[in-house]
Amino acid sequence: MVMRRDSEVHSAAELLESLGRQGFEEVGREVPDSAPDPKRAGSAVSGGFVQPTARVPHSDPAARDRVDALWHAEADRVRILDSNGEFLLLATYPGSFTRGWLRMRDSIGDHLPSRIATASGSRDFIAVSLDGKSMCAVSAEEYEDWIVTHSFESDEDVQGGN
């Protein structure tokens, strides 16, 4: 088990370094108490009742740009980033659900999904507002990417598409 934890910490450290090269900065290790449990957020993205807010076929030649634009439009609508560009990130890496949220600041402000994908090697990620109320995620499905929004203010956390 110690070896697994060491590799998870190493993977998280590598991810943070890679995110840094993409214009993201970890803003301390304090995560607000209002943040949803990472597994709860994961269920809001991939549960059986989840319906995407938007879909982008992988066959679309402009898929990455469309995902970026649609994600930013939805993230703005549900207020994911605060006035300083801060948000909570759950990116894909070994142990990410165990490690939990990364409190990040985006210094660039555009193409956030593409930059996270470049840093993590995966298009999948979950972003949550610092108050823990809103989520905007990207889920890479078999033939398309989904933009999934969700409000944690309701008790129906696995319904998605809110």
Q: What is the molecular shape?
A: globular
Number of domains: 1
Number of strands: 7
Largest sheet: 7 strands, antiparallel
Assign a percent range to the helix content. 25-40%
Low-confidence segments, given as residue ranges, are: 1-7, 155-162
- Please give the order of strands in the largest beta sheet: 1-4-3-5-6-7-2
Query: How much of the residues is beta strand, in percent?
Result: 15-25%
Judged by helices, strands and strand pairing, the structural class is alpha+beta
> Roughly what is the average pLDDT, rounded to an integer?
87
What is the terminal separation in angstroms? 39 Å
Question: What value does the Rg take, in angstroms?
Answer: 15 Å
* Helix-strand topology string: HEHEHEHEHEEE
Q: Given the structure, what is the number of helices?
A: 5
